Amino acid sequence: MSENTAAFQTRRTFAQKITALFAAHAVPIIFIVISALAIPISGFSATYLIQELLIRIGRNSFLILSLLIPIMAGMGLNFGMVLGAMAGQIGLIFVCDWAIVGVPGIVLAMIIGTPIAVVLGLLCGAVLNRAKGQEMVTGYILGFFINGLYQLVVLYFMGWFIPIADTSLVLSRGYGIRNAISLMGIRTVLDRLLPLRLGPFDIGTFHLGYIDVPVATYLVIAAFCFFVIWFRKTKLGQDMRAIGQDRAVSDSAGIPVDKTRIIAIVISTVLACYGQIIYLQNMGTLNTYNSHDQAGMFSIAALLIGGASVTRASIGNVFLGVILFHLMFIVAPMAGKNLMGQAQIGEFFRVFVSYGIIAVALVLHAWKRHNAIMNARRSLRGAPGKKEAA
Amino acid sequence: MLKKFINAAGWPRIIIGLFLLALFATAPFVGVLVSTSLSDTLVRFGMNGVLVLAMVPMVQTGCGLNFGLPLGIISGLLGATLSIELNFRGMSGFAAAILFAVPIAVVLGYFYGQLLNRVKGGEMMIATYVGFSSVAFMCIAWLLLPYKSPTMIWGYGGSGLRTTISVDGYWHNILSDFLSLEFGHLNIPTGMFIFLGVLCLLIWLFMKTKTGTAMTAVGSNPVFAAASGVNVDRMRIVSVVLSTALGAIGILVYEQSFGFIQLYMGPFYMALPAVASILLGGASVNKASIWNVLVGTFLFQGILTMTPSVINNILQTDMSEVIRIIVSNGMILYALTRKAQVKR
Lengths: 390, 344
Prior knowledge:
Chain A is mostly helical. Chain A has one domain: ABC transporter involved in vitamin B12 uptake, BtuC, CATH 1.10.3470. Chain A has 15 helices and six strands. Chain A has helices spanning 14-24, 26-42, 46-65, 68-72, 81-97, 102-129, 135-157, 215-233, 235-245, 247-252, 257-283, 291-305, 315-340, 343-381, 386-389, and strands at 180-182, 195-198, 201-203, 206-208, 211-214, 285-287. Chain A has a two-stranded antiparallel sheet. In chain A, a hairpin with a 2-residue loop joins strand 3 (201-203) and strand 4 (206-208). Chain B has one domain (9-343). Chain B is built from 14 helices and four strands. In chain B, strands 1-4 form a two-stranded antiparallel ribbon. Chain B has a two-stranded antiparallel ribbon with strand order 2-3. In chain B, strand 2 and strand 3 form a beta hairpin. The longest helix of chain B has 28 residues, at 90-117.
């Protein structure tokens, strides 16, 4: 929706500007403050935190980046990205079954996942086109719906009429995939493809131990960032931005709105599929029935914490978000334990914050949109007494 | 005649209804007792009815499907735990739980309504996450609140509430057993039905009052309602408060029959079945009636009860969970996409 409120707010006081600035960046600011308070309480060493963060940036960034393109097309946060994650998981299950290890295994998983993700993306795009203005809640429910189908396939069809040779993957009853699959064959292969070890550093009294950097994963992520930057400049990217600005105007300008929106979702779904594969190769275990659920929730929360909104998200938001979100992820349970004596409280706090932040971001967005509509209506009515002067 | 019926009932209900009928018809052949299944369905219908009824006021004022139901459920849980903490038993215990829960629900609902008034158009997504975050927040609260009753707190730590608390000895089946009838295996929880019926009647009557009519007007066309002098925001808040309070009462009815209070992540996904039920009953995103509640709850709970027993006996596997996920979310998807079509 249009957020060009600036036109109606040309004359603002200084105080209003400060509030606006804070409101625009409220979420990252709050998180920086929380992290700044929680890090000393948790008592983790800097080496540990930096190492953990580097791993988690490599693990999660790709998934979060896959959210950018639908936002550009004005479709909001793509809650349907779990569809892509499921496609990736199906690819991984087959690769595990065929015992293909190393980087070829990852590539093959992507190759298997791609057509599934494309089909699911087409479906998701078609459904979202029927629910314009309600994309997010529809995508969210669609995620649940497809999750049902995914369970039907993985829990009942696999090992029944979809052949699974490796019996260690199959439940003892003879069909259906086990709850957790070990991905030993492809575990961290991408991360360790180009090993780089830094350190130890001594900066004054500040001591840092060895830090491993997963270079290859970072290169893949960097390639993706360049892809996004390049994509924005293409004809298709420009069309999407136009649609994101105003659907009706784009339609009358001859942009095929529905088709472009479907393409945006397909790209996002396929990328989410790759993202999930990268994520799981780092984790090393596939939780067959809940890995994908968490992927959607955490990615969206991280992006929003990075300061993105429902209509605007940049690559910078992705990385700031992944750092802040995972910093809290690491320190919250420990800080909770040291502060309250129960790690569980910190864990619940983290869950509360991840959901709360999505709620706050959605509220802020809807509030802005509501105000913009109100302002637009007021400006149409015109200020009393002004007409005579003109 | 047939066409008229199909139009009135709508295809989804006919398909699901026939499916349910088929399940009941095949039940005797696969060794499932129809009377037991029917009484299970009736019990579940009574348990969930009020939770589904909690959808009606918000849908009627155009606030969308109440995915924020967990907020009402939390109020109910607070009422239930307070009532046990103060050692109220029997009917007075259940009444006390309602008396404690409703004011909390009214306060929470008021603020929730204020919030929803500021985010018109995006209610459903925000409601979902308000529900989720309030559940997560209460997880912390359940650990920290100073409850003392030994039936509720963890045995070893001496603090923090248990994840499930039995209401046995307090008000287990207090409504269900009231005037309950038994015909062999068929057990009818009359008291629960009376309670649900009274609440439905009250809501139906309320919708006929001046306020209720104004609320429906707000849901049908907010601009027109405002032009005819209805305070749109106030009506929406009334509906949200009503929905939240009904959610609180709903979970209490559910618990007295279920026998347990489920805390922590228990209320997390409770909104989805309720939403699916009312949609299955023929409600749309901005129109719902008491009939939708009753029909939808019966069909939905019927399928939930019958699929595990019948399908499992046919296929020798437990597919009920997957079928539940597909049916309930498919129903919500159908409603969401249908609304957009009409709008265009």
